[in-house]
Amino acid sequence: NARTSWLEQRLAQDAAMPTLRDEVLGGLRRSPKRLSPKFFYDARGSALFEQICDQPEYYLTRAELELLDAHADDIAAALGEDVLLIEYGSGSARKTARLIEAMQGEARYVPVEISATALDQSVDDLRALFPALDVAPICADFTSFQLESHDLPAHARRVVYFPGSTLGNFETADAVALLKQMRRQIGANGAALIGIDLRKDKATIESAYNDAAGVTAAFTLNMLARFNRELQADFELAHFAHRARYNVALGRIETHIVSHRQQRIRVADTFIHFDADEAMLVEYSYKYSPPGFAHLAAQAGLHVQRIWTDAQQRFSVQLLVP
Ligand code: AVI
């Protein structure tokens, strides 16, 4: 079997990536400070994110699963036959099982996931559910991997699957770049199937990012705990707060970590100063109207062929073609 082992894939990736230290210090030295939301997802952060998905206020996951329950057969029919399903950031692949079930387990599935643990687990789970499924996992950062350098099962059509509204965590230019990467990877007869949260009233959106149990706050601040562990930093979590506000004009949740007081923090071999009330940007979660998303897709040369939503029209899954 010529498929490269995950460890080899990972080592090649790591060699090409800037270190955590350099990236984090780069963000902390900017004014205003800002860090990428990708730093949320260590093992604890990923577990907290799974818990967020079960919070009553976080409607996104339930709406998307409800939508798949209602429309999976229709979606599978629109994808066609002999599909190679390439999932970006597959994680636990909870939604994928419903889709593959509708494809009658006949699909060829390529999960692309940076966490080897999550990748292993999801592959085991899916193989248990669908013994005939041809799975070719890729352990990589989905924003920068070369699909063509991997050995792929034979197929008639490529479909990139990107559920969960994760595209909403990318700023416009980066979202367009990622959509262009998808367009290159799927070729002329392929498609992209993308989960996108829809614009709605401010209160509903803000409460999804400020759950009463405080899970989202713990998820946000876990980024600091991660730096304490991995970069020998000395953040006191009690001296920082999670803040998530919906910017109605721009249609996005803006999540910041706010310093309660003036403080000096050691990070690796350096000291970083925080002012009292200083806010460090850690995440955007964009929400789109259907025309707004069509406009974004068009900038990458993609055209919206179908839109499915849940009954309350909170969330959408959109089929894009070149
Ligand atoms: C992964 N992503 C789509 C989530 C979101 O809704 O933006 C991450 C998240 N951040 C806070 N809660 C959930």
TrEMBL record:
A Pfam family it matches: Methyltransf_33
Keywords: Methyltransferase, Transferase
GO biological process, any: methylation
Signal peptide interval: none
Keyword Transferase part of the UniProt annotation: yes
MF terms in GO: L-histidine N(alpha)-methyltransferase activity
Residue ranges of domain Histidine-specific methyltransferase SAM-dependent in the record: 21-320
InterPro entries per record: EgtD, EgtD_Methyltrsf_superfamily, MeTrfase_dom, MeTrfase_EgtD-like, SAM-dependent_MTases_sf
Record EC number: 2.1.1.44
NCBIfam families listed in its UniProt record: egtD_ergothio
PANTHER family: ERGOTHIONEINE BIOSYNTHESIS PROTEIN 1
Protein's recorded name: L-histidine N(Alpha)-methyltransferase
Organism: Solimonas marina
Source species taxonomy: Bacteria, Pseudomonadati, Pseudomonadota, Gammaproteobacteria, Nevskiales
Gene from which the chain derives: egtD
